[in-house]
Amino acid sequence: MIRLLAIDMDETCLNDKKIISDETLKAMSKAAEAGITIVPTTGRALSCLPHQLKEQRFYRYVISSNGASVTDTHTGEDLFNELIPYQIAYEFLTRLETKKVGISAHISHDFVLQGHLLRFLGKISYGKDALFSKQSRNIASLILKEKANIEEIQLFYFSKDIQSTITDIISQYDCFIQSGSNHYAELYSKKASKGNALTALAKHLGISYSEIACIGDAENDLSMFKASGLKFAMGNAIPALKEMADVTVPSNNESGVAFAIENHLI
Question: How does DSSP assign the chain, residue by residue?
Protein backbone atom coordinates (compact mmCIF):
# COMPACT_ATOMS: atom_id res chain seq x y z
CA MET A 1 0.00 0.00 0.00
CA ILE A 2 1.32 3.44 -0.95
CA ARG A 3 1.09 6.04 1.82
CA LEU A 4 3.19 8.86 0.32
CA LEU A 5 3.41 10.21 -3.23
CA ALA A 6 6.21 12.67 -4.08
CA ILE A 7 5.41 14.61 -7.25
CA ASP A 8 7.90 16.69 -9.21
CA MET A 9 6.45 19.99 -10.43
CA ASP A 10 7.91 21.49 -13.63
CA GLU A 11 7.43 19.31 -16.71
CA THR A 12 5.77 16.64 -14.55
CA CYS A 13 2.80 18.05 -12.67
CA LEU A 14 2.81 21.21 -14.82
CA ASN A 15 2.35 21.09 -18.57
CA ASP A 16 4.46 23.07 -21.01
CA LYS A 17 2.23 26.12 -20.44
CA LYS A 18 3.14 26.01 -16.72
CA ILE A 19 -0.40 24.96 -15.81
CA ILE A 20 -1.66 22.05 -13.71
CA SER A 21 -4.63 20.50 -15.49
CA ASP A 22 -7.98 20.18 -13.71
CA GLU A 23 -7.70 16.43 -14.19
CA THR A 24 -4.39 16.36 -12.30
CA LEU A 25 -5.64 18.58 -9.48
CA LYS A 26 -8.71 16.38 -9.01
CA ALA A 27 -6.61 13.20 -9.03
CA MET A 28 -4.22 14.55 -6.38
CA SER A 29 -7.17 15.57 -4.22
CA LYS A 30 -8.72 12.09 -4.58
CA ALA A 31 -5.41 10.48 -3.61
CA ALA A 32 -5.24 12.63 -0.48
CA GLU A 33 -8.82 11.69 0.40
CA ALA A 34 -7.79 8.04 0.03
CA GLY A 35 -5.13 8.57 2.72
CA ILE A 36 -2.05 9.15 0.54
CA THR A 37 0.24 11.98 1.67
CA ILE A 38 0.79 14.17 -1.39
CA VAL A 39 4.20 15.89 -1.39
CA PRO A 40 4.98 18.54 -4.03
CA THR A 41 8.69 18.08 -4.75
CA THR A 42 10.40 20.84 -6.68
CA GLY A 43 13.57 22.62 -7.65
CA ARG A 44 11.78 25.89 -7.01
CA ALA A 45 11.98 27.93 -3.83
CA LEU A 46 9.00 27.34 -1.55
CA SER A 47 7.57 30.82 -2.16
CA CYS A 48 7.35 30.10 -5.90
CA LEU A 49 5.38 26.89 -5.56
CA PRO A 50 2.86 26.82 -8.46
CA HIS A 51 0.05 29.25 -7.66
CA GLN A 52 -2.61 26.64 -8.42
CA LEU A 53 -1.28 24.49 -5.58
CA LYS A 54 -1.31 27.39 -3.13
CA GLU A 55 -5.08 27.43 -3.45
CA GLN A 56 -5.36 23.73 -2.48
CA ARG A 57 -5.59 22.00 0.90
CA PHE A 58 -4.74 18.42 -0.09
CA TYR A 59 -1.05 18.65 0.84
CA ARG A 60 0.88 19.66 3.93
CA TYR A 61 4.56 18.94 3.29
CA VAL A 62 6.71 20.39 0.49
CA ILE A 63 10.20 19.43 -0.63
CA SER A 64 11.75 22.53 -2.21
CA SER A 65 15.00 23.82 -3.72
CA ASN A 66 15.99 20.40 -5.10
CA GLY A 67 15.76 18.85 -1.66
CA ALA A 68 17.53 21.52 0.37
CA SER A 69 14.43 21.85 2.56
CA VAL A 70 11.34 19.98 3.71
CA THR A 71 8.66 22.26 5.14
CA ASP A 72 5.47 21.63 7.08
CA THR A 73 3.31 24.31 5.45
CA HIS A 74 0.70 24.10 8.24
CA THR A 75 3.15 25.09 10.97
CA GLY A 76 5.86 26.81 8.89
CA GLU A 77 8.47 24.50 10.46
CA ASP A 78 11.36 23.12 8.44
CA LEU A 79 11.67 19.39 9.09
CA PHE A 80 14.88 19.02 7.09
CA ASN A 81 17.53 21.44 5.84
CA GLU A 82 20.81 20.98 3.98
CA LEU A 83 22.01 24.53 3.33
CA ILE A 84 25.05 26.43 2.12
CA PRO A 85 26.48 28.39 5.09
CA TYR A 86 26.02 32.12 4.54
CA GLN A 87 29.72 32.85 5.14
CA ILE A 88 30.73 30.56 2.27
CA ALA A 89 27.97 31.87 0.00
CA TYR A 90 29.01 35.46 0.71
CA GLU A 91 32.69 34.78 0.01
CA PHE A 92 31.83 32.91 -3.19
CA LEU A 93 29.49 35.59 -4.55
CA THR A 94 31.89 38.44 -3.80
CA ARG A 95 34.41 36.70 -6.09
CA LEU A 96 31.88 37.03 -8.92
CA GLU A 97 31.18 40.75 -8.53
CA THR A 98 33.50 41.77 -11.37
CA LYS A 99 32.32 38.95 -13.64
CA LYS A 100 29.56 39.20 -16.23
CA VAL A 101 27.26 36.72 -14.58
CA GLY A 102 23.58 36.82 -13.57
CA ILE A 103 22.87 35.70 -10.02
CA SER A 104 19.80 34.45 -8.21
CA ALA A 105 19.39 32.47 -5.00
CA HIS A 106 16.92 30.70 -2.76
CA ILE A 107 17.17 32.43 0.60
CA SER A 108 14.87 31.55 3.52
CA HIS A 109 12.44 30.00 1.02
CA ASP A 110 12.35 33.14 -1.16
CA PHE A 111 13.48 33.30 -4.78
CA VAL A 112 15.76 36.36 -4.92
CA LEU A 113 17.08 37.77 -8.20
CA GLN A 114 19.87 40.27 -8.59
CA GLY A 115 18.86 43.13 -10.90
CA HIS A 116 15.85 43.91 -13.09
CA LEU A 117 16.73 41.78 -16.13
CA LEU A 118 16.67 38.44 -14.33
CA ARG A 119 13.32 39.22 -12.73
CA PHE A 120 11.92 40.02 -16.17
CA LEU A 121 13.26 36.72 -17.52
CA GLY A 122 11.77 34.94 -14.52
CA LYS A 123 8.32 36.26 -15.38
CA ILE A 124 8.70 34.94 -18.91
CA SER A 125 9.72 31.50 -17.62
CA TYR A 126 7.29 31.09 -14.71
CA GLY A 127 4.41 33.44 -15.44
CA LYS A 128 2.23 34.14 -12.39
CA ASP A 129 4.47 32.07 -10.13
CA ALA A 130 7.33 34.55 -10.65
CA LEU A 131 5.23 37.28 -9.01
CA PHE A 132 6.32 35.82 -5.67
CA SER A 133 10.02 36.37 -6.43
CA LYS A 134 12.03 39.17 -4.84
CA GLN A 135 14.69 41.51 -6.17
CA SER A 136 18.00 42.59 -4.66
CA ARG A 137 20.66 44.99 -5.87
CA ASN A 138 23.36 42.76 -4.38
CA ILE A 139 22.62 39.25 -3.11
CA ALA A 140 26.01 38.90 -1.41
CA SER A 141 25.30 41.97 0.73
CA LEU A 142 21.81 40.69 1.51
CA ILE A 143 23.19 37.36 2.67
CA LEU A 144 25.72 39.03 4.95
CA LYS A 145 23.13 41.41 6.39
CA GLU A 146 20.57 38.70 7.15
CA LYS A 147 23.10 35.98 8.04
CA ALA A 148 20.81 33.66 6.12
CA ASN A 149 22.04 30.24 5.03
CA ILE A 150 21.30 29.51 1.39
CA GLU A 151 19.21 26.75 -0.14
CA GLU A 152 20.55 27.25 -3.66
CA ILE A 153 22.62 29.62 -5.83
CA GLN A 154 21.91 30.00 -9.56
CA LEU A 155 24.33 31.52 -12.06
CA PHE A 156 23.69 32.62 -15.66
CA TYR A 157 26.45 33.40 -18.17
CA PHE A 158 26.75 33.63 -21.93
CA SER A 159 30.38 33.17 -22.97
CA LYS A 160 32.80 30.25 -22.82
CA ASP A 161 35.43 32.42 -21.13
CA ILE A 162 33.05 33.27 -18.28
CA GLN A 163 31.95 29.65 -18.05
CA SER A 164 35.57 28.55 -17.69
CA THR A 165 36.24 31.17 -15.01
CA ILE A 166 33.09 30.26 -13.06
CA THR A 167 33.87 26.55 -13.28
CA ASP A 168 37.36 27.20 -11.91
CA ILE A 169 36.03 29.22 -8.97
CA ILE A 170 33.36 26.62 -8.17
CA SER A 171 36.00 23.85 -8.18
CA GLN A 172 37.70 25.57 -5.24
CA TYR A 173 34.68 24.87 -2.99
CA ASP A 174 34.20 21.26 -1.88
CA CYS A 175 30.85 21.98 -0.20
CA PHE A 176 28.92 22.49 -3.46
CA ILE A 177 27.13 20.17 -5.82
CA GLN A 178 26.82 21.66 -9.29
CA SER A 179 24.28 20.94 -12.00
CA GLY A 180 23.12 22.87 -15.05
CA SER A 181 24.15 23.45 -18.65
CA ASN A 182 26.68 25.43 -20.72
CA HIS A 183 25.11 28.76 -19.74
CA TYR A 184 23.61 27.99 -16.35
CA ALA A 185 24.72 26.48 -13.04
CA GLU A 186 22.87 25.52 -9.88
CA LEU A 187 24.84 25.15 -6.67
CA TYR A 188 23.60 23.55 -3.48
CA SER A 189 24.88 21.65 -0.47
CA LYS A 190 26.43 18.24 -1.14
CA LYS A 191 23.83 16.56 1.08
CA ALA A 192 20.88 18.32 -0.53
CA SER A 193 18.87 16.07 -2.84
CA LYS A 194 15.25 15.19 -3.39
CA GLY A 195 16.09 11.65 -2.31
CA ASN A 196 17.63 12.66 1.03
CA ALA A 197 14.77 15.04 1.71
CA LEU A 198 12.17 12.40 0.87
CA THR A 199 13.86 9.83 3.11
CA ALA A 200 13.94 12.33 5.99
CA LEU A 201 10.26 13.17 5.56
CA ALA A 202 9.24 9.51 5.36
CA LYS A 203 11.17 8.80 8.57
CA HIS A 204 9.42 11.73 10.27
CA LEU A 205 6.04 10.33 9.22
CA GLY A 206 6.87 6.70 10.00
CA ILE A 207 6.53 5.63 6.37
CA SER A 208 8.67 2.82 4.96
CA TYR A 209 10.46 2.63 1.60
CA SER A 210 7.89 0.22 0.15
CA GLU A 211 5.09 2.68 1.00
CA ILE A 212 6.65 5.55 -0.98
CA ALA A 213 5.86 6.36 -4.62
CA CYS A 214 7.27 9.15 -6.74
CA ILE A 215 6.85 10.59 -10.21
CA GLY A 216 9.27 12.76 -12.18
CA ASP A 217 10.93 13.57 -15.47
CA ALA A 218 14.45 14.96 -15.01
CA GLU A 219 17.95 14.31 -13.73
CA ASN A 220 17.26 15.94 -10.37
CA ASP A 221 14.57 13.26 -9.79
CA LEU A 222 17.07 10.37 -9.92
CA SER A 223 17.79 10.48 -6.18
CA MET A 224 14.05 10.55 -5.47
CA PHE A 225 13.62 7.40 -7.55
CA LYS A 226 16.28 5.66 -5.47
CA ALA A 227 14.36 6.58 -2.29
CA SER A 228 10.98 5.27 -3.53
CA GLY A 229 9.50 1.81 -3.64
CA LEU A 230 7.25 2.59 -6.62
CA LYS A 231 8.57 4.81 -9.41
CA PHE A 232 6.65 6.51 -12.23
CA ALA A 233 8.47 8.16 -15.14
CA MET A 234 6.68 10.70 -17.28
CA GLY A 235 6.39 10.07 -21.01
CA ASN A 236 8.64 13.10 -21.48
CA ALA A 237 11.22 11.87 -18.93
CA ILE A 238 14.91 11.42 -19.61
CA PRO A 239 15.98 7.85 -20.59
CA ALA A 240 17.74 7.24 -17.25
CA LEU A 241 14.50 7.73 -15.32
CA LYS A 242 12.52 5.53 -17.69
CA GLU A 243 15.08 2.77 -17.15
CA MET A 244 14.66 3.03 -13.36
CA ALA A 245 10.86 3.35 -13.45
CA ASP A 246 8.37 0.65 -12.63
CA VAL A 247 5.82 2.36 -14.87
CA THR A 248 6.05 4.99 -17.61
CA VAL A 249 2.93 7.15 -17.84
CA PRO A 250 1.76 9.74 -20.42
CA SER A 251 3.60 13.05 -20.73
CA ASN A 252 3.08 16.23 -18.73
CA ASN A 253 0.91 17.58 -21.55
CA GLU A 254 -1.33 14.52 -21.25
CA SER A 255 -1.90 14.67 -17.45
CA GLY A 256 0.46 11.79 -16.76
CA VAL A 257 0.31 12.41 -13.01
CA ALA A 258 -3.46 11.94 -13.05
CA PHE A 259 -3.02 8.74 -15.07
CA ALA A 260 -0.56 7.34 -12.51
CA ILE A 261 -2.88 8.10 -9.60
CA GLU A 262 -6.09 6.89 -11.20
CA ASN A 263 -4.68 3.71 -12.73
CA HIS A 264 -2.06 2.60 -10.20
CA LEU A 265 -2.72 4.13 -6.79
CA ILE A 266 -6.45 4.47 -6.20
Answer: ---EEEEEIIIIIS-TTS---HHHHHHHHHHHHTT-EEEEE-SS-GGGS-HHHHT--SB-EEEEGGGTEEEETTTTEEEEE--B-HHHHHHHHHTTTTS--EEEEEETTEEEEESHHHHHHHHHHHGGGGGG-EEES-HHHHHHHHT--EEEEEEE--SHHHHHHHHHHHHT-TTEEEEEETTEEEEEETT--HHHHHHHHHHHHT--GGGEEEEE-SGGGHHHHHT-SEEEE-TT--HHHHHH-SEE---GGGTHHHHHIIIII-
Residue-wise pLDDT tens digits, 39-97: 999 999 999 999 999 889 999 999 999 999 999 999 999 999 999 999 999 999 999 98
Tens digits of per-residue pLDDT, 144-162?
A: 999 999 999 999 888 888 8
Neighbours of 187 (CB within 10 A): 22
Q: Compute the distance between CA of residue 209 and CA of residue 143 in angstroms, rounded to an integer.
A: 37
